[in-house]
From TrEMBL, chain A:
Pfam families hit by this protein: NQR2_RnfD_RnfE
Name of the protein: Na(+)-translocating NADH-quinone reductase subunit B
Top-level taxon of origin: Bacteria
Cofactor(s) listed in the protein's UniProt record: FMN
Keywords (A to Z) from UniProt: Cell inner membrane, Cell membrane, Flavoprotein, FMN, Ion transport, Membrane, NAD, Phosphoprotein, Sodium, Sodium transport, Translocase, Transmembrane, Transmembrane helix, Transport, Ubiquinone
EC number, as in UniProt: 7.2.1.1
Membrane topology: Multi-pass membrane protein
Subcellular location: Cell membrane
Known role: NQR complex catalyzes the reduction of ubiquinone-1 to ubiquinol by two successive reactions, coupled with the transport of Na(+) ions from the cytoplasm to the periplasm. NqrA to NqrE are probably involved in the second step, the conversion of ubisemiquinone to ubiquinol.
Gene: nqrB
From TrEMBL, chain B:
Taxonomic path: Bacteria, Pseudomonadati, Bacteroidota, Flavobacteriia, Flavobacteriales
HAMAP family: NqrA (MF_00425)
Subunit: Composed of six subunits; NqrA, NqrB, NqrC, NqrD, NqrE and NqrF.
Source organism, top-level taxon: Bacteria
All residue ranges annotated as the Na(+)-translocating NADH-quinone reductase subunit A C-terminal domain in the record: 263-313
Residues annotated as domain NqrA second alpha/beta: 115-258
Protein name stated in the entry: Na(+)-translocating NADH-quinone reductase subunit A
Catalytic reaction equation(s): a ubiquinone + n Na(+)(in) + NADH + H(+) = a ubiquinol + n Na(+)(out) + NAD(+)
Length: 408, 451
């Protein structure tokens, strides 16, 4: 084994170099290290953080590929080149090379920028702080391209990633220490810093902004627009899509969030692999359903009329909320981030439920930007330690009670 | 009320190299070693020098902080060497065994007429006290405190553990004598647990509360049983004794001889013919490991103890004071191409992240000492809880130990745990954190600050 030995010798020769973590990151990517146990358990289970993170990435790959097709599909549909793909997941209008290539050349740069900038920062911090490059960003780097609009300028993405990784994670001590989900911190930064690129009816379809600019400059073209379902509903319009399309994902939205079907499959895979928390996913869905039912009830009772600006989203059938917007994606891939979620099993139920509940609440009452799941997760990230505190206190109280029963 | 204990959370790690149920006499070791580090927290005060002749059972050193606790020589012979480390800390006391063994005569002891004071002083004087350990802190029991109960686990669930039903066979008189004596030391019960389907010699003994244990490891850990039967509260003390040490205590009471003989299992995938040996505490492991075991200079790890909690020793090392198993497994100091991402069939995992040990629950594995990944901060949650049956939050306790918050450690249940209770969480830890070391250091800190 020539490569194995030469990499090993190189590592041994440069043991005291400051930049060694950068080399090690690549080395351990190629080879599981030769590290052995010392004392404590002499054997260890097969899983490490790299494997865990890699499993999450694998669960997201179908969403990424679907996102590429969908980007091209939405574009071609809006400019009128193709017919709407209706009803079937394997629609021939959707799975075309033409659709894929448009999306591929649009989304690949997002992925590259995400990983290059994010991992670059991780490498720098690892060298400065003298620890190994940690794997947290592997998942974040994949999440980020999936939760932004397809046309987001790359420099904005880069700026947001710098902010998210440095302020959201590294200042707290790196992977495992952060309070807020780094990917959502990046998205929240984009949302508040560049709102025109994160909402409205121009950003969700590839080429829409450019076309609008051309029209403004005097070009004789038809405008293309693609409003998300949430956007339409918030403005009191009809959703404009069949429920099946929402479920399969043939709708405008952030790159990877549209196909509820693939997200659910990814979620089931994570639950099966015992990597993702089924407690959070399930309770979050329950929370959303409860809130959706409450709003439906409000509408049914006639407390709110069609003249209300909340009517559109409030009257949305409760279970449609699970299919539209970023709810499913957020629940499966972002709320379950173990570092920022509740750490106790009981806490996970409460944490997940509140995420679902608050997501729909924000969605309905924030017509300016009708996507609640991002803010709901960030909010619950902040409260997760509090939830855990009370769960752990329960255990402590039990122990105290046991002692009291003894001494009484 | 049923006294049975059924554990659901846990993990049986099935390894290759289980010992065949035959025992043979190990070659007599020429040298025996006592290592003070086997007795956690004890600062030894020597009473013998190099060249001193000792009999088996004669005191070699005592505990500086409690001079009544004496440590006996396992054999008769001459003290050959006292090796010291930094700050002249005593690392090992090497004894050259006599050809003809002479025992110190402690006199037979009539347990029936004895009271707690006489039992205590007899065990202390004869060097049997170190076999009795206490919780909290997992150290040698403090003889000045009365334990609320005594726990003995006659069920070994750890990977490749010596089968106690086999090693204790025919020792009923000794076990009974020892348990009768221990019963005098507590106002509470003597809890003895045995495997549900086993045929333990402990079952028929008088003066015990019997518990039948079933479920995966750590069901056999005495800490698990304490937690399920009568957990330790603040201010309370329980004592624990290994059943194989009961035999030594019992023999001392019956005959007056401190006989450090013990049946030890030689196990592990590197061993050619895993089986049991009759040997003595402190023996050279070389007397056992090379005969149909391993060849010299192989790339193997020799462990005094089981693969989860034992101590790494060199081929010229010695059986430690409490172990009844020597495990030998291959070293894993090699790289594995894309080992972190490729599907894994030959390693154990509780996940299904392209790890396939869930497909074959009965399969036995040949695990090596590779860490399968690098040390990281705590990231995943809920993993430890799957293999941790105690009513304690494992990750929260570990973190409290790391940031040394004594109040929190106390409130979260540190009085109930020993490092070995965290062996399985350490095994499954995705971040490869040294759980047992963290807990040990936490306990040491509490012992020092709270006492």
């Amino acid at each position: 084994m020539g490569l194995k030995d030469s990499l090993h010798n190189f590592k041994e020769k440069n043991k005291d170099k400051k930049w060694l973590p950068a080399f090690s990151a690549i080395h351990t990517f190629l080879y599981l290290p030769n590290e052995t146990t010392h004392n404590g358990t002499h054997i260890k289970a097969a899983d490490d953080l790299k494997r865990t993170m890699n499993t999450v990435i694998m669960a997201m790959v179908p969403c990424l590929i679907f996102g590429m097709f969908n980007a091209g599909y939405q574009h071609n549909l809006e400019i009128g080149d193709i017919q709407a793909a209706a009803g079937s997941f394997f629609s021939s209008e959707f799975w075309t090379m033409d659709n894929f290539l448009i999306g591929f050349w649009k989304i690949l740069p997002l992925v590259i920028v995400s990983y290059a900038v994010g991992l670059g920062i991780e490498f720098i911090f690892a060298i400065i702080k003298g620890h190994e490059v940690e794997e947290g960003y592997l998942v974040t780097g994949m999440l980020v391209p999936l939760i932004v609009p397809v046309d987001i300028p790359l420099w904005m993405l880069a700026v947001a990633i710098v902010f998210g990784v440095v302020i959201g994670k590294e200042v707290f001590g790196g992977t495992g220490m952060n309070i807020l989900n780094p990917a959502l911190t990046i998205r929240a930064f984009l949302f508040f810093a560049y709102p025109t690129w994160m909402s409205g009816d121009k950003v969700w379809v590839e080429g829409a902004v450019e076309r609008a600019n051309n029209i403004a400059a005097g070009a004789n073209l038809d405008a293309i627009s693609g409003e998300t379902i949430l956007g339409s509903l918030a403005q009191g319009k009809a959703a404009g899509y069949e429920v099946m399309d929402m479920f399969l994902g043939f709708i405008p939205g952030s790159v990877g969030e549209t196909s509820t079907l693939l997200i659910v499959l990814g979620g089931l895979f994570l639950i099966f692999a015992k990597i993702g928390s089924w407690r959070i996913m399930l309770s979050s869905a329950l929370g959303a359903i409860v809130m959706g039912l409450i709003f439906n009830q409000v509408v049914d009772s006639g407390w709110i009329t069609e003249s209300s600006k909340f009517y559109g989203l409030m009257s949305t059938t409760w279970w449609h909320h699970l299919l539209i917007g970023g709810f499913a994606f957020g629940t499966v891939f972002m709320a379950t981030d173990p570092v920022t979620a509740s750490q106790t099993n009981k806490g996970k139920w409460i944490y997940g439920f509140l995420i679902g509940f608050i997501s729909i609440l924000i969605r309905v009452f924030n017509p300016a930007y009708p996507e609640g799941v991002m803010l709901a997760i960030l909010l619950m990230n902040v409260f997760a330690p509090t939830i855990d505190h009370y769960v752990v206190q329960g255990n402590i109280k039990q122990r105290m009670k046991r002692l009291k029963a003894k001494t009484a | 009320m049923s006294n049975d204990i059924r554990i659901k959370k846990g993990l049986d790690i099935k390894l290759k190299g289980e010992a065949e149920k035959t025992s043979e006499k190990a070659i007599l070791s020429n040298f025996y070693t006592l290592r003070p580090e086997d007795f956690h927290g004890v600062t030894p005060k020597l009473i013998s020098k190099v060249g001193t002749k000792v009999k088996a059972g004669e005191t070699v050193f005592f505990d500086k902080s409690n001079e009544t606790i004496k440590f006996a020589s396992p054999v008769s012979g001459e003290i050959l060497e006292i090796s010291r480390g930094e700050k002249r800390k005593i690392l090992a006391i090497k004894i050259q065994a006599d050809k003809e063994q002479a025992y110190q005569d402690n006199g037979t002891f009539d347990v029936d007429t004895a009271n707690s004071e006489t039992v205590k002083s007899h065990l202390l004087a004869s060097g049997c006290w170190p076999f009795i350990k206490q919780r909290p802190y997992d150290v040698i029991a403090n003889p000045d405190k009365m334990p609320k109960a005594i726990f003995i686990s006659g069920y070994a669930s750890a990977p490749l553990a010596a089968d106690l039903d086999f090693t204790l066979q025919g020792k009923e008189p000794e076990l009974q004598a020892a348990i009768k004596a221990l019963g005098k030391l507590t106002e509470g019960k003597v809890h003895v647990s045995v495997g549900k389907n086993g045929n333990s010699p402990l079952i028929g003994l008088a003066g015990i509360t019997l518990h039948k244990v079933s479920g995966p490891h750590p069901s056999g850990n005495v800490g698990t049983q304490i937690n399920k039967i009568d957990p330790v509260n603040k201010g309370e003390v329980v004592w624990t004794v290994n059943p194989q040490d009961l035999v030594i205590i019992g023999e001392l009471l019956l005959t007056g001889k401190f006989n450090a003989e013990r049946i030890v299992a030689l196990v592990g995938s590197s061993v050619q013919k895993p089986r049991y040996f009759v040997t003595k505490i402190g023996s050279e492991v070389a007397t056992m490991v090379y005969d149909k075991g391993i060849s010299r200079d192989t790339n193997d790890r020799i462990i005094s103890g089981n693969v989860l909690t034992g101590k790494q020793i060199k081929p010229d090392g010695y059986l430690d004071y409490y172990s009844n198993v020597i495990s030998i497994i291959p070293e894993g100091n090699d790289y594995e191409f894309f080992g972190w991402t490729k599907p894994v069939f030959n390693k154990v995992s509780i996940s299904r992240a392209l790890t396939f040990s869930w497909l074959a629950p009965k399969k036995t594995y040949d695990l090596n000492t590779n860490t399968n990944g690098e040390h990281r901060a705590f990231v995943t949650t809920g993993t430890y809880e799957e293999v941790f049956p105690l009513d304690i939050f494992p990750m929260q306790v570990l973190k409290a130990c790391l940031y040394k918050d004594l109040d929190e450690m106390e409130a979260l249940g540190m009085y109930e745990v020993a490092p070995e209770d965290f062996a399985l969480t350490e095994f499954v830890c995705v971040s490869k954190q040294p759980h047992q070391k963290i807990i040990r250091e936490g306990l040491d800190l509490m012992l020092k600050e709270i006492g």
